[in-house]
Amino acid sequence: MQVLRKNLNWRIFIFFTIGVLIASFLFSNVATGAVEISSIQFIGQATLPKGLSFQKTEVGGLSGITYDASNDLYYAISDDRGQKAPARFYTFKIDLSKGKLQDKGVIPVGVTTLLDENGQTFPSGDTDTEGIAVTQAETVFISSEGDAGKLTPPFIKEFPLASGKSIKTLPIPNKFLPDKNGKQGIRNNLAFEGLTITPNNQYLFTVTENALIQDGPAAQPNIGSPCRILQYNLQTNQPEKEFLYQTEPISTFFNLTGKFASGLPDLLALDNQGHFLSIERSFAGLGFGVELFQVSLEGADDIHNIDSLLAIDSQSIKPVQKKLLLDLRTLDVALDNIEGLTLGPSLPNGQKALILVSDNNFNSIQRNQILAFQLKIESPLMRLLRRILPNFNR
Hints:
394 residues, mainly beta, 4-stranded antiparallel sheet, globular
């Protein structure tokens, strides 16, 4: 009888311990709100008319896009360097009410001219605005690549939606700034392309499209490039951390044009725990290639104290984790120069919308293309329940 009682006590202890561990796991993961995308489905595209004029500006160069859930509006930044009109962003309505995007479903409804701290438009050639991210305070942060050739530094500035006048400029770490010797800093037109803010509005992330000069080569055929993700704390407005993001090598199987481009044009925060979507976009002679990745900072090394990756053994650095979510070349869609992405509203079936936008470079043979997708996003709790109960929620 004592042996039976002893075995029973051990079983109770083991089951209790397992229960506590499972409960702790569930509580910690539910509390963090970390998410993962379990499926993605293409739900349509739209193309803006060529040479579209809106409020005396030519709509084009749409390099980044962000969704304002409180107003059900999208803001898209133009990378026009002031040649067509002053630096600006557009406001769009995108109709996803039927669970898909139709060709006439994207309508411009506003344009906001960007002004500096003195209320003046930016001089032509001084900006190359590429990234945009909306905040809960009815402002947008906008990134500019600058111009390494002219030693014009990149910037990240905050602009109210109502006025478009700059109210804040985030400091840029010295390692990103171009120097007159051409030995450090951003490469021209390969700098701060992407911009995103976590849902809780505590952190802002930007990313270089290709490597800093002192970090390694720009992307070449069959060679990727070591990009840097730069994290800001929006409570202090200071840069805090940096992470290594390695782009995929692109093959030039058949290239009659001799032109090649590849890089990381945008990043999208999915939660507050370092999970993102990223776009890698390439051109290698046979049209554009676009790949969508799930990205995690978990386990990645903070490299903000490393000024040059070439000066150390960079093989020992743990980069961010990447997992291919979708190669857009598998879709029955002629892809253009996709550069921006944002989450949209919940669709009629409860799933989340994802919107991608292309930069037409104000080129008559390119398009302002908007692609829409349906995402199935799961929390750790849902994933665990699905493993335990295979038929759960089918």
